[in-house]
Amino acid sequence: MGSAKTRFSFSSEKATSIKADGLIIPVFKKPAPKADSKAKSPKEVDPSASIVWPVTLDKTLKDEIEAIALEEKFDGSKGKTLTVRQSSANKLGARRLVIVGLGEIDKVLPRHWEANAHKALAGLLGLKDFKSVAILLPEATEKLSAEAAVSLAVDAVFQATYKSMEAKEPGPKLDSIILISDKKRENTLQQAQALAEARSLVKDLVNHPSNLKTTNTLVEQAKTIGKNSAIKVNVQSSSAWIEKNMPCFFTVAKGSLASDPPKFISLHYAPKSGKAKKKIAIVGKSVIFDTGGYQVKPGDYMVTMKGDMTGGAVALATMQALAALQPQNIEVTAYLAATPNKIDSDAMIPDSIVNTSCGKKVEIRHTDAEGRLTLIDAVTKAAESKPEEIITIATLTGAASVAVGSYIALMGNNEALRDRIAVAGRSQGEPIQTLDVTEDDFENIKSKLDGADIINTSQRKNRGAQTAAAFVMSGASDEMPMAHMDIAGADMTPDEKATGVSVKTIVQYLLNEDASLGGGKASAPKPAAKSTTTSKAAPKGKVAKAPATAPLKSPAKKGAAKGTPKKPSDRQPPKAKPAASPKKKK
Ligand code: BES
Ligand code: MN
Ligand code: ZN
Q: Between helices 110-125 and 146-161, what is the axis angle to 10°?
């Protein structure tokens, strides 16, 4: 969390006069003239004339910028940047001005603003002694709300300064970020920081090397979140209890009972008033490392499987954000069924029939389809406390990444719930694509064996993401509104770094629900589009403040996996870098 100590503030001063090391000004591109319009006037040939300037510029500065724009063909197109240095002639307050193109105003999405603010920041941070940056917030549009402009600028700062705990050098430190805006949006700013900190926590947990990560890594993180906060943490570490009460989850854990026994972790948040109007459950896939089991993952397919606990990390980080923001109208419980998927003589094998806590019998056909085995029991446990809805987050299927690439594949059994989550996530710039789970998907997970009801793979080769979703949702009744996010294609970048994707979606969704139920202390930023609060279950097929310490250990420390928790600011670079491996994701 490289930017944890950055001070964020608002200013309504004139952008070009603000004293800072850097100044970022986003500009839009004027829409192209219609094809049938008359010949271009000389001014329109000048690319700088096609820019919509959000600020009035003094003549010298304006002339200078236009000259550079002409030479560099800068026209405000998305992703293009133009840099100007401070001089006695142009009287810039900042040492360096970066003008960043966002493209045409009505096409700008939250994630475009984040990506380009990130890009501009990354350029500035490479320069000597950059400690403060002023960022002019782009004009609000239908697709990019004023709140989202704040939120995504804050996220861009965290993204641009993030370095994992294992990095040899710490991330660049920024002392101050000044958000230039007519209005001080302190509440949005506070939420944005909590969201960005949550995202960094997900990245820290996921990036942590597999040889140092155990179920206890998640347990310790849960306890850290519970310390001095409104979060109550419960850890079930008795293998006998898990075998009896969550037999399907236990089936996966059998491959690592001796080396890293399973944990069932829950974290509960309720407002101090005790007057929550809605109860929401979150279940995160927490497979510490996925070898595939006896049907072992071949070669490179196993690489990046340290990230198979991303869903659990998202669930933990969500609770950290709730502890900081304390919404007044919602009660939230997060559940993590944590275990590696490994091999020993007792590990699960195909052709088994195992019990679940919901009573259904499961045919194991593939030991690498372990995530759904852990989740079905966790969903049943979540449903027992009678929440109004359950959200599952999981790196569940390679099929999801084939279907939607690096997007979040958002599914469920309740269209209204799914849409509210999509609106929340998109307002936070997260890439989301919805998929429908149909009656056929439930048909295709029916087992043909006499002694089993459902099977942990599909009877067909296709619709792998949707059939896995159907399996997970089978843990609760048809009437329970459920949403499922398969993030198998979204959790890591092509160069195998955690993205932290999906935690902002969940937290923003929770804040929106809180706000629609009456707000209170932590009223949420308005999403760009309307959201409704009706959540009626559709039958299946219809479509149907941050804790003080972090438990992650640096690999540099001897006996790191069992060491004492350290402050995030005390994070130390490792002495040895874990061996890099080639990447080929399934
Ligand atoms: N953890 C994997 C899914 C995954 C794949 C996540 C790639 C991130 C990147 C999951 O446990 C798995 O192995 N799924 C199998 C299921 C199959 C055996 C039915 C898959 O998708 O191939
Ligand atoms: Mn697997
Ligand atoms: Zn897995």
A: 40
